[in-house]
Amino acid sequence: MGSEGRVWNGAGVAAGSGYGGSVEAKATTAAPADVPTSAASVDISLPLPEMSPHIIGLCKELVKGWSSIDSSRFSIETVSGGITNLLLKVSVKGNNGNDSSVTVRLYGPNTDLVIDRKRELQAIPYLSAAGFGARLLGMFENGVVQSFIYARTLSPADMKEPKIAAEIAKELRKFHQVDIPGSKEPQLWNDIFKFLKKALKFEDNEQQKRYVKISFTEIQDEVKELKDLLDILHAPVVYAHNDLLSGNLMLNDLEGKLYFIDFEYGSYSYRGYDIANHFNEYAGFDCDFNLYPDKDAQYHFFRNYLHPDRPSEAQDMEVLYVETNTFRLASHIYWALWALIQAKVSPIDFDYLGYFFLRYGEYKKQRDSCFALAQSFLSGLRNG
């Protein structure tokens, strides 16, 4: 879904271990089986009835065993139409009266400005082979076909329930151990500076009046200072989800199975960033950042992330706490700049510019305390 849940009601691989925060060596990820591909594309601007024949044709081409099924036995419904893509459920009526279903995800227009599709498509087969998300069934020019997950989407309130939080932490640890071939260089700062360069002036006069209030010199200085501080922490680099909000978490209550879905923003990044970004999403659809978890709730998460089967070392817990609560700032900067790009190019009726001011405002609100936490920790190391 890639940020479908991001709604606002407003107008290198485990190579470094950080300061005591060890990450176990990654298990070798099995190479994915060959995934069928198609050069076809679907016009996402079409109404669903006009789009349906193209979707059916793609499913016949890509889904094993569906090529000879009569088109009259297909049905298509919209699962979600979100900020970065359109998700469809495609079902086929079987001879026994039961439906077989898949999902078709269509990329939204201009999303290549904020999402590296090449990076995503490189990772999906390996994540799928490792058991994460829906099983990848096929790829086409502007989307993918995946298995249908029979589970409910979590709410922001679900994420902070201790039992669910523990399962998210355990699953995230496994996710961070997946080995994706290619460069293991962290992409967070590259992406942030890319967003800064792509920030454009607005053609809409009302937007431009608000846009001129933004000091990009100030933002650039803040990013550089934050990066310099975080570099000193030497946070472990992992393959990160980078968008672990409630809309990208699904739970089958009967089986107790938790699913991570939608890896559009996935990349090699810092473990503390991925966890901090998840904690920021406790704010929910109203963006109430007062709901950010307190230290006790964070330590409950960390215990299940670090060593779910044995007691965690106090030093490991402290390291992860400092990492997470400093990268908390990077998450606000990232999504603030993301919103500026979306404000310029997205056809979605959403106050992206207002979202920028909201996230950057939260960055400034939390800045001094987060910097002080990291600086105090580093000072203690130097003096210890």
TrEMBL record:
CDD domains attached to this UniProt entry: ETNK_euk
Pathway: Phospholipid metabolism; phosphatidylethanolamine biosynthesis; phosphatidylethanolamine from ethanolamine: step 1/3
InterPro entries xref list: Kinase-like_dom_sf
Signal peptide (UniProt feature, chain positions): none
One MF annotation (Gene Ontology) recorded for this entry: ethanolamine kinase activity
The protein's Enzyme Commission number: 2.7.1.82
One Pfam assignment: Choline_kinase
Top-rank taxon: Eukaryota
Family: Belongs to the choline/ethanolamine kinase family.
Protein name as it appears in the record: ethanolamine kinase
